[in-house]
Protein backbone atom coordinates (compact mmCIF):
# COMPACT_ATOMS: atom_id res chain seq x y z
CA UNK A 1 0.00 0.00 0.00
CA UNK A 2 1.06 3.49 -0.75
CA UNK A 3 1.64 5.59 2.32
CA UNK A 4 1.02 9.39 2.23
CA UNK A 5 3.68 11.45 3.87
CA UNK A 6 2.47 14.04 6.33
CA UNK A 7 4.14 17.41 6.04
CA UNK A 8 5.20 19.06 9.29
CA UNK A 9 3.14 22.18 10.18
CA UNK A 10 4.71 25.48 9.33
CA UNK A 11 4.58 27.92 12.16
CA UNK A 12 6.31 30.78 10.42
CA UNK A 13 4.50 33.41 8.38
CA UNK A 14 3.77 32.83 4.80
CA UNK A 15 5.89 34.47 2.25
CA UNK A 16 3.03 36.39 0.71
CA UNK A 17 1.37 37.35 4.02
CA UNK A 18 2.02 40.85 5.38
CA UNK A 19 4.10 41.13 8.52
CA UNK A 20 2.19 42.88 11.33
CA UNK A 21 3.84 46.03 12.59
CA UNK A 22 4.23 47.21 16.19
CA UNK A 23 1.00 49.20 16.13
CA UNK A 24 -1.01 46.17 14.98
CA UNK A 25 -1.43 47.22 11.34
CA UNK A 26 0.22 45.63 8.28
CA UNK A 27 2.88 47.61 6.60
CA UNK A 28 2.06 46.89 2.91
CA UNK A 29 4.50 49.59 1.98
CA UNK A 30 2.79 52.20 4.20
CA UNK A 31 4.32 53.75 7.33
CA UNK A 32 3.18 52.47 10.68
CA UNK A 33 1.38 54.56 13.30
CA UNK A 34 4.61 55.66 14.98
CA UNK A 35 6.16 56.71 11.69
CA UNK A 36 3.01 58.54 10.61
CA UNK A 37 2.89 60.41 13.92
CA UNK A 38 6.54 61.36 13.60
CA UNK A 39 5.93 62.56 10.06
CA UNK A 40 2.97 64.69 11.09
CA UNK A 41 4.96 66.18 13.98
CA UNK A 42 7.85 66.97 11.64
CA UNK A 43 5.48 68.60 9.15
CA UNK A 44 3.87 70.63 11.94
CA UNK A 45 7.26 71.84 13.15
CA UNK A 46 8.27 72.75 9.64
CA UNK A 47 5.04 74.66 9.05
CA UNK A 48 5.30 76.45 12.38
CA UNK A 49 8.81 77.72 11.80
CA UNK A 50 10.69 74.83 13.35
CA UNK A 51 9.90 75.65 17.00
CA UNK A 52 6.63 75.01 18.74
CA UNK A 53 5.87 77.74 21.20
CA UNK A 54 3.78 76.60 24.10
CA UNK A 55 3.43 77.74 27.67
CA UNK A 56 3.20 81.16 29.31
CA UNK A 57 6.01 82.66 27.21
CA UNK A 58 3.97 82.25 24.03
CA UNK A 59 0.83 83.87 25.42
CA UNK A 60 0.28 87.47 24.51
CA UNK A 61 -0.69 89.88 27.27
CA UNK A 62 -4.25 91.11 27.31
CA UNK A 63 -4.60 94.53 25.67
CA UNK A 64 -5.09 97.40 28.08
CA UNK A 65 -8.35 99.27 27.98
CA UNK A 66 -8.58 102.65 26.37
CA UNK A 67 -7.78 105.49 28.74
CA UNK A 68 -6.45 103.14 31.41
CA UNK A 69 -2.80 103.39 32.33
CA UNK A 70 -1.12 100.23 33.65
CA UNK A 71 -0.63 100.33 37.38
CA UNK A 72 -2.71 103.48 37.80
CA UNK A 73 -5.31 103.22 40.60
CA UNK A 74 -7.39 105.92 42.24
CA UNK A 75 -9.30 105.67 45.54
CA UNK A 76 -13.06 105.72 45.29
CA UNK A 77 -14.90 107.48 48.14
CA UNK A 78 -18.61 107.71 48.72
CA UNK A 79 -20.21 110.99 49.71
CA UNK A 80 -19.99 110.11 53.39
CA UNK A 81 -16.47 108.75 52.96
CA UNK A 82 -15.36 111.95 51.25
CA UNK A 83 -16.78 114.04 54.10
CA UNK A 84 -15.07 111.90 56.73
CA UNK A 85 -11.78 112.00 54.84
CA UNK A 86 -11.85 115.76 54.41
CA UNK A 87 -12.94 116.49 57.99
CA UNK A 88 -10.43 114.11 59.56
CA UNK A 89 -7.62 115.42 57.36
CA UNK A 90 -8.34 119.05 58.23
CA UNK A 91 -8.55 118.33 61.96
CA UNK A 92 -5.25 116.40 61.87
CA UNK A 93 -3.58 119.18 59.87
CA UNK A 94 -4.94 121.79 62.28
CA UNK A 95 -3.45 119.91 65.24
CA UNK A 96 -0.14 119.68 63.40
CA UNK A 97 -0.33 123.39 62.61
CA UNK A 98 -0.98 124.24 66.26
CA UNK A 99 1.93 122.04 67.31
CA UNK A 100 4.51 123.25 64.78
CA UNK A 101 3.42 126.77 63.78
CA UNK A 102 1.46 127.92 66.82
CA UNK A 103 -1.94 127.72 65.11
CA UNK A 104 -1.20 129.85 62.06
CA UNK A 105 -4.41 130.53 60.13
CA UNK A 106 -2.47 131.08 56.90
CA UNK A 107 -0.82 127.65 57.09
CA UNK A 108 -4.21 126.11 57.80
CA UNK A 109 -5.72 127.82 54.75
CA UNK A 110 -2.86 126.73 52.49
CA UNK A 111 -3.22 123.11 53.63
CA UNK A 112 -6.95 123.31 53.02
CA UNK A 113 -6.53 123.68 49.24
CA UNK A 114 -4.87 120.29 48.45
CA UNK A 115 -7.33 118.50 50.73
CA UNK A 116 -10.21 119.99 48.72
CA UNK A 117 -8.64 118.92 45.44
CA UNK A 118 -7.98 115.38 46.66
CA UNK A 119 -11.53 115.05 47.99
CA UNK A 120 -12.96 116.13 44.63
CA UNK A 121 -10.64 113.74 42.78
CA UNK A 122 -11.23 110.68 44.94
CA UNK A 123 -14.99 110.82 45.34
CA UNK A 124 -16.73 108.33 43.07
CA UNK A 125 -18.60 109.55 39.97
CA UNK A 126 -22.03 108.94 41.46
CA UNK A 127 -21.30 111.28 44.42
CA UNK A 128 -19.55 114.15 42.64
CA UNK A 129 -22.03 116.76 43.85
CA UNK A 130 -21.23 116.00 47.49
CA UNK A 131 -17.61 117.17 47.26
CA UNK A 132 -18.33 120.95 47.17
CA UNK A 133 -20.79 120.47 50.07
CA UNK A 134 -18.52 118.59 52.50
CA UNK A 135 -15.50 120.83 51.90
CA UNK A 136 -16.79 123.92 53.82
CA UNK A 137 -18.03 121.67 56.65
CA UNK A 138 -14.58 120.09 56.93
CA UNK A 139 -13.01 123.55 57.04
CA UNK A 140 -15.16 124.43 60.08
CA UNK A 141 -14.49 121.04 61.71
CA UNK A 142 -10.72 121.58 61.62
CA UNK A 143 -10.77 125.16 62.91
CA UNK A 144 -11.01 124.66 66.73
CA UNK A 145 -7.31 123.74 67.24
CA UNK A 146 -6.16 126.93 65.45
CA UNK A 147 -8.97 129.32 66.47
CA UNK A 148 -8.61 131.79 69.34
CA UNK A 149 -10.33 130.71 72.54
CA UNK A 150 -11.87 134.19 72.96
CA UNK A 151 -11.14 134.49 76.65
CA UNK A 152 -12.14 130.97 77.70
CA UNK A 153 -15.43 129.24 78.22
CA UNK A 154 -17.87 127.75 75.75
CA UNK A 155 -19.04 131.17 74.56
CA UNK A 156 -15.46 132.34 74.07
CA UNK A 157 -14.59 129.26 71.97
CA UNK A 158 -17.71 129.78 69.86
CA UNK A 159 -16.89 133.43 69.25
CA UNK A 160 -13.31 132.52 68.38
CA UNK A 161 -14.57 129.97 65.86
CA UNK A 162 -16.91 132.51 64.24
CA UNK A 163 -14.12 135.07 64.10
CA UNK A 164 -11.74 132.57 62.47
CA UNK A 165 -14.38 131.68 59.88
CA UNK A 166 -14.88 135.35 59.06
CA UNK A 167 -11.18 136.07 58.81
CA UNK A 168 -10.37 132.98 56.78
CA UNK A 169 -13.32 133.23 54.39
CA UNK A 170 -10.94 133.76 51.47
CA UNK A 171 -9.29 130.37 51.97
CA UNK A 172 -12.71 128.80 52.45
CA UNK A 173 -13.99 130.20 49.16
CA UNK A 174 -10.77 129.29 47.34
CA UNK A 175 -10.89 125.66 48.50
CA UNK A 176 -14.58 125.35 47.67
CA UNK A 177 -14.00 126.86 44.22
CA UNK A 178 -11.13 124.43 43.59
CA UNK A 179 -13.39 121.50 44.48
CA UNK A 180 -16.15 122.85 42.21
CA UNK A 181 -13.73 123.16 39.27
CA UNK A 182 -12.39 119.63 39.70
CA UNK A 183 -15.92 118.23 39.98
CA UNK A 184 -17.01 120.16 36.86
CA UNK A 185 -14.09 118.81 34.81
CA UNK A 186 -14.75 115.25 35.95
CA UNK A 187 -18.45 115.64 35.19
CA UNK A 188 -17.77 116.90 31.67
CA UNK A 189 -15.39 114.01 31.00
CA UNK A 190 -17.93 111.53 32.37
CA UNK A 191 -20.68 112.86 30.11
CA UNK A 192 -18.38 112.73 27.07
CA UNK A 193 -17.30 109.17 27.88
CA UNK A 194 -20.89 108.00 28.25
CA UNK A 195 -21.81 109.60 24.93
CA UNK A 196 -18.85 107.83 23.28
CA UNK A 197 -19.97 104.53 24.80
CA UNK A 198 -23.47 104.97 23.39
CA UNK A 199 -22.05 105.71 19.94
CA UNK A 200 -19.79 102.66 20.13
CA UNK A 201 -22.66 100.42 21.18
CA UNK A 202 -24.73 101.74 18.29
CA UNK A 203 -21.88 100.90 15.90
CA UNK A 204 -21.24 97.51 17.51
CA UNK A 205 -17.79 98.46 18.78
CA UNK A 206 -16.38 97.63 22.27
CA UNK A 207 -16.64 100.48 24.73
CA UNK A 208 -14.66 101.40 27.82
CA UNK A 209 -16.86 100.93 30.87
CA UNK A 210 -14.52 102.47 33.40
CA UNK A 211 -15.68 105.93 34.33
CA UNK A 212 -13.33 108.11 36.31
Features:
single chain; 212 residues; mainly alpha; elongated
Short précis:
With 212 residues, the protein is mostly helical. It has helices at residues 33-47, 79-100, 105-122, 131-141, 153-167, 169-203.
Report on the architecture of this protein:
The chain has about 210 residues and is mainly α. The protein has a domain at about 80-205. The protein is built from 6 helices and no strands. The protein has helices at about 35-45, 80-100, 105-120, 130-140, 155-165, 170-205. Helix 2 (about 80-100) packs parallel to helix 4 and helix 4 (about 130-140) runs antiparallel to helix 6. The longest helix is centred in the C-terminal third of the chain and has 35 residues, at about 170-205. The radius of gyration is 41 Å and the shape is elongated.
- Can you tell me the overall shape? elongated
Give the ordered list of helices and strands. Answer: HHHHHH
The largest sheet is:
none
Which oligomerization state do the chains in this entry correspond to? Answer: single chain
Number of strands: 0
Class derived from helix and strand content:
mainly alpha
Tell me the radius of gyration: 41 Å
Unreliable residue stretches? 46-58, 62-68
Mean of residue pLDDT values? 74
Share of residues in helices: 40-55%
Distance between the termini: 115 Å
Number of helices: 6
Strand content: under 5%
Amino acid sequence: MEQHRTRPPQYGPRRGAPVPAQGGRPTNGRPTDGRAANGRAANGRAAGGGVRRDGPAARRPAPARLGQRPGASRPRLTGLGGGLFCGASMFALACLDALLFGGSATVYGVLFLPVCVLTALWVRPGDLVTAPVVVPIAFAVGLPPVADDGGGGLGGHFMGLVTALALQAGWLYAGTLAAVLVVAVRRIRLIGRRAAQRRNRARGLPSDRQAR
